Amino acid sequence: MQDSKAWNGITINAGTGLTGGGDLTTHRTISLGTPSTITGSTGNSVSDTTHTHAIAIASTSGHGIVELATLEEVLAGTDNTRAVTPAGLINTTLVQNTSAISVNANISGYTLFQKGYLGSGQIVRPVLLYGRSTVFSDHGDGVGTYNITFPIALSCIYNVSANVGHSSNSFDIQLSCYNPTNTGFVVYSKEDTPNINPYYIIWSAYGYIFA
User: Fold this and answer.
1) 62 bridge partner residues
2) Share of the chain above pLDDT 90, in %
3) Using CA atoms, how far apart are residues 211 and 208, in angstroms rounded to an integer?
4) Type and span of the H or E element at 20
5) How far apart are CA 202 and CA 199, in angstroms?
6) Is the pTM of the predicted complex or chain greater than 0.85?
7) What spatial distance separates the first Cα and last Cα of the chain, rounded to whole Å?
8) Which of 78, 109, 75, 111 is closest to 95 using CA atoms?
């Protein structure tokens, strides 16, 4: 200092992550550098005229950054690290299977409905299960029994039903359902018209799971 003034030969340098500074021939400003874009892989660091921060990964127990799931990932149903948006969820119900399904294919699925309460206060989610199970044999005037397995186990089952289908209209097959459990039921089939091989059972069930 000379005569209560700073010597203009002194230089103020901005540190890492800052901008500005210079000699004291005029007023100087030191500013925080523009931060770099934060991603799921950045850490707490400074470099040159910028800086970054670490950010937590979102989980079921805490807030954080999360990647959005693609439609394919939503349909696969195996990823537990990405988030599903309302648009992504509704799109999964609009996807149509453009590949051919064999007449001999066994297919099944289920739909979960909004949570509700039992009289006891237990929270449950109603479930509609459905499917098609192909029967490969012709019984003529004989009978057959076929086990239907649900794609998910129910906590309680209310109702099961089954019908029959085939590419031909000339048949008369009688079906009945019995022995319903939380994981499936049995279809009893009596075929009165021969030579419709194969036919298939279209079935549905309704119940709930504990939420």
Assistant:
1) 59
2) 1
3) 9
4) strand 18-23
5) 10
6) no
7) 75
8) 75
